[in-house]
Each structure stands twice: as structure tokens, then as C-alpha cells.
Amino acid sequence: MGTMDNRATMTNRNVSQQVFLREAKDKLGLPWKEFAERIGAPETTLKKWLAAPEAVGNYREMPSTVWVLVREILDHEALKNKFNRLANKASKSA
Length: 94
What we know:
Blueprint: H1 3-10, H2 17-28, H3 32-39, H4 43-50, H5 64-93
Helix pairs in contact: 1-5, 2-5
């Protein structure tokens, strides 16, 4: 999926933070522990972001900086994948 596809899906703030995080984790293909490490958040904090808002005491709203960080990580991965595809294509035709 390209960078614009990631942005279109992940910029909609009407999407819950739980859906946003699950989609990002799936796109990166990481288990939850590695995903937490990748975004620089303790697993306990990530679990609170993933909790339903009705889960009193367990829910925490995710800061806007984390939304931006996760989008940047997704964009970086998309560009890295595109570069690798182009590099592989170029090496095969050389």
C-alpha cells in the first residue's frame, strides 16, 4: 500500500484510536510488544490506549503526537518498501 493510502486511512480522526492502532500494527506486521517498542510506548500504556473508553480506570486517550508518530512510521515503511521494490527491479534489469 502506498503512502497516500496510509494517510487516507489513518488521518481520519473519526476512526477510534483503538482501530487506528490495530490497523497500524497490522500494516507493520508486528506483534503488540514489538509495536509498543517501535512507537516508544510501554506495553501498559499501549493497553490503556487500546481499552474501550467505557473501561473506567483502564482507558487513556492517546496524545496527538502519537497519532502523528504512527502515521510517520507507516509513511516511512511505505517509502522503504517502494524503494526496495524499485531497487530490486533495477538490479534485475541491469
